[in-house]
């Protein structure tokens, strides 16, 4: 790893594999992995537990100010996520959280605080980060920007297998429908919509394994 620090961003739609790819890429490079999606998921979990009105933007922004989300890289390479001191690494992956994260992520006040936290984490260190707006908003000057995509059937299949492996009762049709709905919300939201940064390189992960996608990215970067 070079002496100077760098940021590599991976943006893209749900199920494209960007989180697992980003995690693996960070491990190969020996740098920090920042899972921004987990931050929004953790806050969503807290809001759901409190039975908050997900359309109350002011209340959600206040909730964010009074929330502490901490990441810790574990020896096995996994990422431990704590919400106000509680380990929620598994709980934040529940379908109910996935399907409601949009309502939290679209709030300007919430995103402003999250972006500040993300930039703080990335300050003075090399990171690989993934999300919806990492290359377009959070780290506009990132050394390398990638837009990771895959066709919807592959994305739905990946998410379905993840949920089944986690013991969830879902159907592939249900997962596909939820994913297409999430795509529409992500692409069309007013605040930080999902889009490819002008200087981002598109990486199609359709038909590729995680390591195959990482290999593809490694060939495109020079550090």
Structural commentary:
The structure is a single chain. The chain has 223 residues and is of the alpha/beta class. The protein has a single domain (7-211), classed as Rossmann fold (3-Layer(aba) Sandwich). 48% of the residues lie in helices and 16% in strands. The chain contains nine helices and eight strands. The chain has helices at 18-29, 36-49, 57-65, 95-105, 108-122, 134-138, 152-165, 172-188, 210-218; strands at residues 7-11, 32-35, 69-73, 79-83, 86-87, 127-131, 144-149, 201-204. Strands 2-6-1-7-8 form a five-stranded parallel beta sheet, sandwiched between helices. The chain has a three-stranded antiparallel beta sheet with strand order 3-4-5, with helices on one face. Strand 4 and strand 5 form a beta hairpin. 39% of the residues are buried. The model has no long low-confidence stretch (mean pLDDT 92).
- The overall pLDDT, averaged over residues, is 92
**Main β-sheet: number of strands, strand sense, barrel status?**
5 strands, parallel
What percentage of amino acids are in beta strands? 15-25%
CATH superfamily: P-loop containing nucleotide triphosphate hydrolases
Number of self-contained structural domains: 1
The rounded distance between the terminal residues' Cα atoms is: 7 Å
Instruction: Write down how many β-strands occur, each being a DSSP E stretch of 2 or more residues.
Output: 8
Walk across the major sheet and give the strand order.
Answer: 2-6-1-7-8
Helix tally equals 9
The CATH class turns out to be Alpha Beta
* Radius of gyration (Å): 17 Å
Residue stretches low in confidence (pLDDT < 50, at least 5 long) are none
Helix- and strand-based class? alpha/beta
Helix content: 40-55%
Instruction: Choose one word for the global shape.
Output: globular
CATH topology: Rossmann fold
Topology as a string of helices (H) and strands (E):
EHEHHEEEHHEHEHHEH
